[in-house]
Structures are given as C-alpha cells and as structure tokens.
Amino acid sequence: MQVRHLLKEKGVSVIGIPASASLADAARLLTEKNIGAVVVRDEDGALAGIFSERDLVRALAAAGAEALNHPVSRHLTRDVVTCGLCHNMEDLMEMMTRGRFRHVPVLDDDGRLCGLVSIGDVVKNRIAETVREAEELRVYISATA
Fold first, then answer.
1. What is the rounded distance in angstroms from the CA atom of residue 68 to the CA atom of residue 76?
2. Alpha carbon of 24 to those of 50, 59, 70, 78: distances in Å?
3. Using an 8 Å Cβ cutoff, are 83 and 3 in contact?
4. Which residues contact 57 (CB under 8 A, 6 or more apart)?
5. Alpha carbon of 99 to those of 17, 21, 79, 102, 143: distances in Å?
6. Which of 2, 45, 51, 72 is most exposed, with the fewest beta carbons within 10 Å of its own?
7. b/e code 32-54 from CB counts within 10 Å (16+ = b)
8. Own/partner pairs, 129-137, CB within 8 angstroms, 24+ separation
9. Domains of the chain with bracketed CATH
10. What percent of the chain has pLDDT over 90?
11. What would the pLDDT profile of 73-99 be if each residue is shown by its tens digit?
C-alpha cells in the first residue's frame, strides 16, 4: 500500500505548533491530542522541523524544569526525514527502523506538507494486511478442498 492510500483512510490532518511556542505548550498539545509529535512550520507554512516526546525528554534532561520555558525552536528536530505519497509501507518501515524515529511527515509532489504517518499507522496497516492475506488463503484452501 502506498502512503497516499493510507492518508485517504486515516485523513490528512496534521497538528502543528509555532516554533515560538514554549515546551510547556508543546507538552500540553501532545497530551491533549494524545499524539507523540507535532510538526513545526516556518512563516510560509513549509516544514521547519518536528517536535516529539523524545525531543521534550532530551530538553528536560539537559536543562531540567526550566526547559519548559524554552521555545520549541530551541529543541526541535530540524533534519527531518520525509516521504512522498508514492512511498509504500515497506519503505516507511525501513526508514523508521533505520532512523530510529516514529513519525514521518509526508510531502506532496510539489514538496508541500500534506500528512504525517506514525509507526502506529504503519503497524496497523501491516496487521490489517496480514489478516486480509490469511483470510484470502483460508478462502482459497476452502475452495480447492
């Protein structure tokens, strides 16, 4: 399955936060939305980075509770690995495993942000695919028996 198909099922809503927001604001947003990462966009709306729970933990480990007053721009991940609509789930699993990250922003053919895929989305898709294949094999075996 391609990313474009996954986004049609899941939706293209992407939760973001301004780079000037505090880490406390980011932590609240992550908690309220029950998500593990938010995208950070620049003034033009382009992808400037991603801020994840891991970035929050690293900031707290380095600066203690004072980090909660820091702007997101100080701790976000700027070198973000992205994927395109034509990537497939195997590509994403490989990217995420090799890079040790759990969220991949999706860019459309013009390079604009159009979605966000999490490891949970990939795993859910893989499980559904495995269940579907097992059912098809059961039907095939039943029909030939």
1. 13
2. 16, 11, 8, 19
3. yes
4. none
5. 23, 27, 11, 9, 44
6. 45
7. eeebebbbbbeeeeebbbbbbbe
8. 129/1, 129/89
9. 3-144 (3.10.580.10)
10. 74
11. 999 999 999 999 999 989 999 999 999
